[in-house]
Amino acid sequence: MKVHTQHHTTNLTNNLRVIQHAWYFWFELSSVFTVVKLSIVVACFTP
Questions:
Q1: Transmembrane segments in this chain: where (predicted)?
Q2: For the chain, what are the domain ranges?
């Protein structure tokens, strides 16, 4: 029973790590898109 609980905890930790990486990935992706959009806006308004 103890081994099963330890395995379940490890699985939960791995899932949380995957979720953390997914959030980091989306944050980086949205940051890149924000920079691209801002550079396009600046390019449009510069003579």
A1: 23-45
A2: 1-47
